[in-house]
Amino acid sequence: DVKVTQSSRYLVKRTGEKVFLECVQDMDHENMFWYRQDPGLGLRLIYFSYDVKMKEKGDIPEGYSVSREKKERFSLILESASTNQTSMYLCASVGAGANVLTFGAGSRLTVL
Amino acid sequence: DQQVKQNSPSLSVQEGRISILNCDYTNSMFDYFLWYKKYPAEGPTFLISISSIKDKNEDGRFTVFLNKSAKHLSLHIVPSQPGDSAVYFCAASPNFGNEKLTFGTGTRLTIIP
What we know:
By secondary structure, chain A is mainly β. In chain A, 0% of the residues lie in helices and 53% in strands.
């Protein structure tokens, strides 16, 4: 069974802290994505990556960065967390030329 | 600017009846559409998709209809079951094979036993 694993399910951080959200997929997928889900706003794309060491901005990249050093791992970094980054973060992956994303279970981040 | 909209944030339907979830889009470049279902504390899971060359696609209790001229799609679930209670997201892509999806705002469906 294919899997996207987000290691941290729940995090509570303070304003100004650096936050790492990790995502690992075991499907040898080329493409990986970070979305955030907020009530009334749906899923919004933060960053995505088509290949190792490649990254592209999504619709709301401000305040975030990403790292993809290995094909299976895609990390989302909040350099200095702010309260408006309190959200559910969802990682997803898909093979090249496909549309059906496989999502992880999500990481709920609260910034105080 | 929300390119994919689900105007009903919530919907309640009696068990056994039909559930109809609607989705509108503004970008005429969108050519491939998907529906995802999300339970609390889980990631979204793929439900059904449709290409713009079709106006209907069926999979068991789930049917998606596409009206390209109206830039509108809908998901029909019949008969509705309690396990269908979830948040449903529609998503759109410029073409099949384009991995970057634009998601809607979601509709929370509650099936009343």
